[in-house]
Each structure stands twice: as structure tokens, then as C-alpha cells.
């Protein structure tokens, strides 16, 4: 028997479709179009591709896309001045500064300069605190996408044992907070966890977000568990470059009840949830009801 494959591409397409539908309604009823501003500093090839995809998908959902591409030598003060202008621009509802930034910039300072209400990445310290205390927040896109897929697969998550392997501020910690809010019993594990294998084997939901290729072998997975693999790792195998997750897919696929593949699992959901967050931010800014089924 093989696990059910959770198709992130198809799920992301559905989310984008729902965003586009609600953007259309918002425009028709109120004459409002959500706007997303993306700021890229430098010429990192992976970041350029990511920003290009964000812009394309933003326009495809009927939103306004504003791209600001700055040279790598741009001063920190210049970047902060741009963020201040975007904060004040009523046509911009979401602001995203693409990471990583050049070494001469303080990423925390830059991210926390964004208006928390426009922080569609969910990285601002205010949003981190709001999420941790169970209040209304902008939720980081990747954990939000994982939660959406888990809810769609399981329905009610209440009472399930969830193990999140990874403790990053971007995925691990907010993922754990979201699962707690859905009444899971949550364990945050990491590379230094004692007897990590046994901890993983106790999980009804296993979320792997450590950034280490195939760190979690198949026999660490509880039979019938749902595995959400956030890892995207480039490795060399049999003379070819390929992408693998943090979970050893072939082995886990034989044991799990459901699993996200790499590629094609969690990855496509990140941009889809960025668009959902931008729509949510626009609705909040205008005192309108939040979009149904697109928030945490």
C-alpha cells in the first residue's frame, strides 16, 4: 500500500482560484483592488525567479503587483525609506521584502519597519506575538499552507498528536502555534532531540522543516500518519541534480497514510498563501469581512 499523495500544486491552484474569485467580488462591490509590493535587493538568481513568479501570480488573480528591484549596494537607509513610502501608500495592502538581504543590512530591522498590517509574510515581531498569544495576526505563508492542507485532509485536527521537526522562526515555531490553535497536542523537535526517531513515531501529524535532505527515514513514520515535508534540498544523485525533502519519500510513502511530495507539495502553497494574505490584509484595511477559508 502507498500513502495518499497530498497534491500541493492542485491545492495551490484551488487557493489561487478562490482568491481570484473573491478579488473580483471585492472590486465589483467596492471598487477596491488588493495591491502587493515586493522588494528585491540584489541579484540572487533564486530570489529573482521567486519574485517573478510572485508577480505573475499576483496579476493572474486580479491584484495589482508593484515590484521594486534595488541594486545589491543599496544602503539600508534607502531601503527603509522605500518601506516607509509603501507603508503610507493606500494602494499597497501587502509588503514583502525578499530574503536573504545583502550582508550590510539588518534583516530584523528591515522586516520590523514594515507596517504589521501589511506584513503579508507574517515575520514582523508584532505578528509573531499575536500568533503566539492566539490573537488575529498575519500568519507566515508556508505554515498557513501546511495548515490548509492538513485541514482539508483531516477535517478536525483536535486531539491529534503533532510533531514539528524544526524550530525556525519562519516555519517550525509558527507551525506549532497554528497546530496548538487547532487543538493538537504539539511537540517541537529538532536535530538535538533525544531519541528523535521515537518522538517522530508517536506523531499522527509529522511536519518536517529542518532543511536537511532525507533526515527522517521512512521507518520513523507512524503507520497511517500524515507527513508534511517542508524541506526543499538540492542534492547530487546518480550524476544528476534533484530536489528531495527532509523525509526519505520512498520509505515513508509505504508507511504513511498521506504525504506531501517534493517537489509539488508544500512549495506551491507558499505563494498561494501570500496572495491569500494580501487579500486578507486588504479586507482588514477597508473594514470588510475577511475571505472565507483562506485564513488560519
From TrEMBL:
Keywords: Amino-acid biosynthesis, Histidine biosynthesis, Hydrolase, Methionine biosynthesis, Multifunctional enzyme, NADP, One-carbon metabolism, Oxidoreductase, Purine biosynthesis. GO terms for molecular function: methenyltetrahydrofolate cyclohydrolase activity; methylenetetrahydrofolate dehydrogenase (NADP+) activity. This is Bifunctional protein FolD. Gene3D superfamilies: Leucine Dehydrogenase, chain A, domain 1 (3.40.50.10860), NAD(P)-binding Rossmann-like Domain (3.40.50.720). GO terms for biological process: L-histidine biosynthetic process; methionine biosynthetic process; purine nucleotide biosynthetic process; tetrahydrofolate interconversion. Homodimer. It holds the Pfam family THF_DHG_CYH_C. NCBIfam families: PRK10792.1, PRK14186.1, PRK14188.1. NADP(+) binds at residues 166-168, 232. InterPro entries: Aminoacid_DH-like_N_sf (IPR046346), NAD(P)-bd_dom_sf (IPR036291), THF_DH/CycHdrlase (IPR000672), THF_DH/CycHdrlase_cat_dom (IPR020630), THF_DH/CycHdrlase_CS (IPR020867), THF_DH/CycHdrlase_NAD-bd_dom (IPR020631). HAMAP family: THF_DHG_CYH. Residues 140-284 form the Tetrahydrofolate dehydrogenase/cyclohydrolase NAD(P)-binding domain. Belongs to the tetrahydrofolate dehydrogenase/cyclohydrolase family. One of its GO terms (cellular component) is cytosol. CDD domains: NAD_bind_m-THF_DH_Cyclohyd (cd01080). The gene is folD. Catalyzes the oxidation of 5,10-methylenetetrahydrofolate to 5,10-methenyltetrahydrofolate and then the hydrolysis of 5,10-methenyltetrahydrofolate to 10-formyltetrahydrofolate. It catalyses: (6R)-5,10-methenyltetrahydrofolate + H2O = (6R)-10-formyltetrahydrofolate + H(+); (6R)-5,10-methylene-5,6,7,8-tetrahydrofolate + NADP(+) = (6R)-5,10-methenyltetrahydrofolate + NADPH. Its EC number is 1.5.1.5, 3.5.4.9. Pathway: One-carbon metabolism; tetrahydrofolate interconversion.
Amino acid at each position: 500500500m502507498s500513502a495518499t499523495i497530498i497534491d500541493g500544486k492542485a491545492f495551490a491552484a484551488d487557493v489561487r482560484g478562490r482568491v481570484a474569485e473573491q478579488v473580483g467580488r471585492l472590486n465589483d462591490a467596492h471598487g477596491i483592488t488588493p495591491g502587493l509590493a515586493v522588494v528585491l535587493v540584489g541579484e540572487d538568481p533564486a530570489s529573482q525567479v521567486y519574485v517573478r513568479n510572485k508577480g505573475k501570480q499576483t496579476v493572474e488573480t486580479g491584484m495589482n503587483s508593484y515590484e521594486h528591484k534595488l541594486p545589491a549596494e543599496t544602503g539600508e537607509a534607502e531601503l527603509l525609506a522605500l518601506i516607509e513610502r509603501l507603508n503610507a501608500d493606500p494602494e499597497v495592502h501587502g509588503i514583502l521584502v525578499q530574503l536573504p538581504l545583502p550582508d550590510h543590512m539588518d534583516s530584523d530591522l528591515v522586516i520590523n519597519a514594515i507596517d504589521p498590517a501589511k506584513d503579508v509574510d507574517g515575520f514582523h515581531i508584532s505578528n509573531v506575538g499575536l500568533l503566539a498569544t492566539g490573537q488575529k495576526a498575519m500568519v507566515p505563508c508556508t505554515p498557513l499552507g501546511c495548515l490548509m492542507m492538513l485541514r482539508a485532509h483531516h477535517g478536525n485536527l483536535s486531539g491529534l498528536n503533532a510533531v514539528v521537526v524544526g524550530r525556525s522562526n519562519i516555519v517550525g515555531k509558527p507551525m506549532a502555534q497554528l497546530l496548538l490553535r487547532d487543538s493538537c497536542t504539539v511537540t517541537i523537535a529538532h536535530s538535538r532531540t533525544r531519541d528523535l526517531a521515537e518522538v517522530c513515531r508517536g506523531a499522527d501529524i509529522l511536519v518536517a522543516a529542518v532543511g536537511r535532505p532525507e533526515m527522517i527515514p521512512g521507518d520513523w513514520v507512524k503507520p497511517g500518519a500524515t507527513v508534511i515535508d517542508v524541506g526543499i534540498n538540492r542534492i547530487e544523485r546518480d550524476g544528476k541534480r534533484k530536489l528531495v525533502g527532509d523525509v526519505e519519500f520512498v520509505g515513508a510513502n509505504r508507511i504513511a497514510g498521506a504525504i506531501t511530495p517534493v517537489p509539488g507539495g508544500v512549495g506551491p502553497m507558499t505563494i498561494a498563501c501570500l496572495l491569500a494574505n494580501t487579500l486578507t490584509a486588504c479586507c482588514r484595511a477597508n473594514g470588510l469581512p475577511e475571505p472565507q477559508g483562506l485564513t488560519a
